[in-house]
Amino acid sequence: MRPLQIILIVLIVFTSCKQRTESQKSIMRVDVKEQKNVVPLRPVIVTESSDNISKHDSFPIWLKEIYPDTLKWKYQNLKQEITNFRKVNDSIVLINLRRADFTCAWEYLVVLTNRKPTDSVEVGQICDQDLAYYQYEHKVHKEIDPLKFEVITIAGTVPDSMLNGKWIKGNKDFYDLAMSDTFVETIEIWQTGKIQRSTGHNNGHSK
């Protein structure tokens, strides 16, 4: 092979390698630039709709077994729900339990000792009201501290002079005529698991 041909072949090979290297550098620069704009992948937590998750899921399984969502009572089924749970000590827990039918809802404080119900007290009650009826009562409670509560019962009654039997005369309704009394009772949960109820007192009579 002539020297001139050899030189020509070497030049062609060198030029080809240089172009390939430049091309690779260009690709690398593009890749780096694109990667700067990429957000790192993070784990995705998939949760079901709240409609498909029981509120009981935040409470121990053994409580769900004692207090299912439905309670058979007399001729009907009551809806049942645990609304709060707290540990008193290693063997005693306190729960708030709500039950309801089509017209009323009741709330209870329930003490469980070694996973068995041992004491309870009603601390809430509210029902649909017929404004033509002579009497209505509802009950609420408030927490003073984690193991002490006040239960407030408000009872209203329409005077006999405005009644025809147990129904209000004329076009007046319950709230036009009723006189109400408020009773307050203190509830304490002892470390032994017993519920102590104080003697209720009357906060007065009002229109």
Commentary on this structure:
The protein is of the alpha+beta class. It contains 3 helices and 12 strands. It has one domain. The longest helix has 34 residues.
Number of DSSP-assigned strands: 12
Discrete helix count: 3
What number is the mean pLDDT? 76
Q: What class do helices, strands and sheet pairing give?
A: alpha+beta
Strand content: 35-45%
Trace the largest sheet across and list its strands: 1-2-3-4-5
Distance between the termini: 124 Å
Secondary-structure element string:
HHEEEEEEEEEHEEE
What general outline do the C-alpha atoms trace?
Answer: flat
Fraction of residues in helix = 10-25%
Low-confidence stretches: 17-56
Largest sheet: 5 strands, antiparallel
Total number of domains? 1
Over all CA atoms, what is the radius of gyration?
A: 37 Å
Keywords:
207 residues; alpha+beta; 44% strand
Secondary structure: elements and pairs:
Elements: H1 3-36, H2 61-66, E1 70-73, E2 76-87, E3 92-100, E4 104-113, E5 116-127, E6 135-145, E7 148-157, E8 163-164, E9 167-168, H3 174-177, E10 179-189, E11 195-197, E12 201-206
Antiparallel strand pairs: 1-2, 2-3, 3-4, 4-5, 6-7, 7-10, 8-9, 10-11, 10-12
What is shown here, in short?
This protein has 207 residues and is of the alpha+beta class.
